[in-house]
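Notes to self after the call with IL:
- keep both proteins in one doc
- input above output, always
- annotate only the second one for now

Protein 1:
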Amino acid sequence: MKKSVIFSVCAAAALATGAQAESSLADAVKNGKVKGNIKYYYINTHKEKSSGNSTAFANSIGGQLSYTTGRWNGLDATVTFMTTQPFALPNNVDTSIIGRDNAVKAGQAPGGVAGQKGFSVLGEAYLAYSRDNFSFWGGRKVIKTPLISAKEVRMLPSAVKGAHASINFEGGFRVGVAYLDAFKQRTSSEFDNIVKHALGDKTKEITGNESGVVVPVCISWKGQKNAIKVIDYYSPDFMNSIYADWNYRHKHSDELSYAFALQTIIQDSVGNADDNLAKAGSVTGGKAIKTRAGAAKLTVNYMSMAFTTAYSKVLKDDGYHDSLVLPWDGTPLYTNMITANNLFLSNYGKALGADSAYIGGTDGIKIAYRQDFGAFGFSGYSMTLSSAWFDNDRFAKTQNDLNAVLAYADAGFSIALKGIWVRNGAGAAADGTISQTPILHQYRIIANYKF
């Protein structure tokens, strides 16, 4: 969809409500609101492999500055400037908080020169309209859905370009549809065609076209204790993905509550991709996409503590590419960990790879404990400990992750210290070949001020 179409729809919707005096529009601009954040990020990643050990780190400072106009005839506009600026870099740079995706697009190694350069980008620029039970936005926007998401675990969020409309109905029902044609990965300075970003230089070979779109359709319902959501992400000549979940929440008392959730994901290649990937010699080794996955999660909250346990399963099918395809920063499984989360499979052209919980045939188990120390007189302090195991008969050894987070938050300021330890981290190439990293240690310091 062209930008002119998106903005024309917004303008028509606004005019349909009746003309306003020019001063009202001027007041909307004058009375707009500014918000943003300033973030400092330090990351240190150490890997031990049979080919040798490596350590990379980086410092970066940046954040976002956003301006939203006041509402005029149900219409408002938002622009968000984003930047990440590294400093005091070593010889071996961890570019995952700078421009890793820029390096990959330039044909360089992830730590390449292009990835070490800071950048600034207009990450959001959209018009929004709402009236009664109808809402619409069009332009560049940060969104959060299970399979296309912001993934705000690094310096900047990812964003999309397109349009979205939704209607709320009585009884808690909501129906929405979107048209997305571009995606900006969190370590990229540019918006790329959304399918081209996923498949890179293999796009035409796989889909028969140089570009493509994704059309998500969402139906959801929310009651007092239950919520159900189903989203169909359709991309012609590439892939159809169906995500569904059910969430149940119950408050037993002021001290005790619990939540239970189920989810399922179904993915299949469609059109030209279904035919081309099935051909001998394709990037997937002659296998069309067919992925089936599910997970369950239970969380119990007692006073200032929270206990979570989760299980996930991705079905194995040797006749197909059976790993989840997650090119747009979606990390949906409940067993997802800070590191074992397909973090780099959303880099340019890396869609058909997978890791840990998301590889075909993997069983995942996760346990987590969160403690809010406010109950002990340390207001704002919290700690989260989590561990996960990922097993697959394709793995030489079971993968184990351990994550520890100590955090403090007060008003607009927050700081988090994160430690990540992974043994036998597993990854799958597009053709299903499995590789494992014996040891990965990572440490992060993230300070953030929101205003």
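Protein 2 (the one to annotate):
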Amino acid sequence: MQKHGFEESLKQIIAEDTRYPKEAYVFLRLALNFTIKTMQKPSTGPARHITGQELLEGIRRYTLQEFGPISRTVLSEWGITRTEDFGNIVFNLVRHGLLGKTDQDKIEDFSNSYLFQEAFTNPFLPTSARNQNPVGKAKKPIRKTKKEIPP
């Protein structure tokens, strides 16, 4: 599966696709290792394949563990603002032989899995503040009648 060393292949990936820095790829590999360790392994035989959805959940949990309340900020600094970005990184690694995939795996497996607001911001908000103003919906301005406006 791995033709070149990780560092050498990573330089080539970044030269071809400048959307994500080296740190994003290294982090994804660490998140994959975390996901593998947290999944139940079969008692015998090879390890079970991880689906895109399972990897996304593992990435979410690992990100929260590593970065806590600044998770979304860190990911944004790396150009990662939606789950599709994780899919782009995974498939860049697959194309360069650094990760494997099955015939059933597709980049679309990483589409619209979760909103970053819900996954990385809401866990740190007080319960009363969660999802009060979903992303993309502006609050209605409070209109005062003439009687309520102070002189």
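Annotation: The mean pLDDT is 86. Residues 121 and 129 are 11 Å apart (CA to CA).
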